[in-house]
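Justification of resources, computational component.

The compute hours requested in this renewal are based largely on the per-chain cost of generating structure records like the one below. Each record pairs the submitted sequence with a full structure-token output. That output is archived, and it is also reused by downstream analysis tasks.
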Amino acid sequence: MSTPQTQPLIGTDSFSWKKWDACTHCGLCLPTCPTYRELGLETDSPRGRLYLMGSAFKSQDPTPLNEEWAEYIYRCLDCRACETACPSGVHFGELLEQARAIYEQNASRSTSYRFWSNLVFKHILPNKERLDLIFELMWLYQKLGIRWLVQKSGILKLMGQMGQMESLLPKIPSPNLKYTMQDITPAVGEKRYRVGFIPGCIMNQVFTDTNIATIRVLTQNGCEVVTPRKQTCCGALHLHNGVRDVASTLAKQNIDAFEDEDLDAIIINSAGCGATLKEYEALLEDTDYAEKAERFSHKMRDISEFLADIEMIPPNGKIPLRVTYDEPCHLLHGQSVKLQPRKVLQAIPELELIELTESEWCCGSAGIYNITQPELSQEILERKMEHISDTDADIVATGNPGCLLQIQLGIQKHGLDMKAMHPITLLDYSYRSIPQDEWEE
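The structure output for this chain reads:
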């Protein structure tokens, strides 16, 4: 149990009170909040969580800052649907991340929690070599058939939540694939733009083929693509989990990696990462990196956003399939990118785009939410899968790694004859006129 503090709270001086005070308590956010819709508790709504923040931080009374307080704050998906609905423009995601950071600075966490948190957020995610090693071991676990043996043995059922987490493990591509990316990839034909590319950390380990497809699509559209080796994890998962100091350090490293490059834009294909990268300006506004962060954030573009803004070269390869589009929360609500991914998909010859009911509703992945809140995550996913099933689509297109994994898991559980794919993967297949029977599994 968390022990009540006897001294003023640490870190509340950095809390954005002006943004917090913008809330008028109108309640228009409540119907858009997945946890409120599932649980029906005011404390599991954006309005309720803002009240919890104020009750603890304004009074400087440490008593409310206990495990029950944290339960409501950490049960939020940080999907930001409330931001889209809010008429007052409350930056709820930013306030939530600040609140979690304050809690982590003041709470008496268990030794085991601190150990695993430090290991993941300070020693694995920011370290490319360690991340490479972990995913290479995962690849061997699958390649050598060890996973098949483990699943058949029934041992996973005895492992409880750890066993359930194993089911979330996707097929890991060959480790050699990510090393084919070059520091500078020349444009195909006349160079129209010079852009930076951020392959991400988890994205580059699990969806390496999508990263390579993204670079191919960019070069096909006259872009010289710069992928600096000095870049690192964007810090999104750190911010979502209250590890704000590490996120700031990572942000500065990424800004430095691109600062001296003369770029028209910096491209990302992961919605969750993109929202964080575009908000470096807010993260570092009170530091000596404020001006650099502003320049960096203003150059950030989601891949679909960038392609929709330029005169995209039309692809020729036909893809005569039914495709439905699921909107990643941090692309729609975090970046206000809605029509552009649809525009990209509609450019593919013979592709039939089927609108998805509640396409804007969260799938329950939300970073590592499906690990930290597995039961609630699955309940939220079920709502999504009902609508996906109704489309009778061949492909569910979505632009975020967590959403791709979560929806693919839902497809498997429901026995649906469809597949989750990134829109850019489809666009790349169209550019290269790759027949469907030759698509990578």
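The first strand starts at residue 184 and ends at 185. The first helix runs from residue 17 to 20.
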